[in-house]
Design a protein that fits this description.
174 residues; alpha+beta; Alpha-Beta Plaits; 4 helices; 6 strands
Length: 174
């Protein structure tokens, strides 16, 4: 664990696990941009005196562990990172794609959880998230490949409500 941060009259160690998604969980556009986003997020966090400790960019969502000084609200920093990164993407990469949604790149809202003394567990979860998503996707494909199980009501198709993992941000008008 890193040392606690300092403000004039405060010692702090405020770390958060944050997850957010692109609008409509757009995967194709995001795949092209995800290699640039890590550095953009890190620079924006520094502007708010914050630090991204761990992060993983998935094809359809972002996981990060971020240290935010006690003087800032989490919503202020996350909103700043999402807003400024969307503007950056629109300016730098928006002209390449006709359907680029620009300043509305990220969906509204996000998931946040405090990171307490289980920091190592959260770091490991973020690192292994892509592997776990691939495993779950393969299980869903196997379930869909068995048509007799669907007719008997044992497996649900892709349109069912149960396909979205609990705790994940999503929804909206897409």
């Amino acid at each position: 664990m890193d040392e606690a941060g300092n403000l004039s009259h405060t010692k702090w160690e405020c770390k958060y696990h944050v997850v957010f998604i692109p609008k409509c969980r757009r995967k194709t556009l995001y795949r092209e941009l995800r290699r640039y986003l890590g550095e953009v997020f890190r620079r924006l966090a520094v502007q708010k005196e914050s630090r991204i400790e761990e992060g993983h960019l998935m094809p359809d969502h972002v996981h990060m562990m971020i240290a935010i000084p006690a003087k800032y609200a989490v919503s202020q920093v996350v909103g700043y990172i999402k807003g400024k990164s969307a503007i950056h993407l629109a300016r730098v990469y928006g002209e390449r794609k006709r359907n680029f949604v620009g300043q509305h790149f990220w969906a509204r809202g996000y998931f946040v959880s405090t990171v307490g003394r289980d920091e190592a567990v959260i770091r490991e979860y973020i690192r292994n998230q892509e592997r776990e998503d691939q495993r779950l996707e393969q299980m869903n494909l196997l379930r869909r490949a068995k048509p007799d199980a669907v007719s008997r009501g044992r497996a649900r198709g892709p349109a069912s409500q149960g396909d979205r993992a609990p705790g994940r941000p999503g929804g909206g008008n897409c």
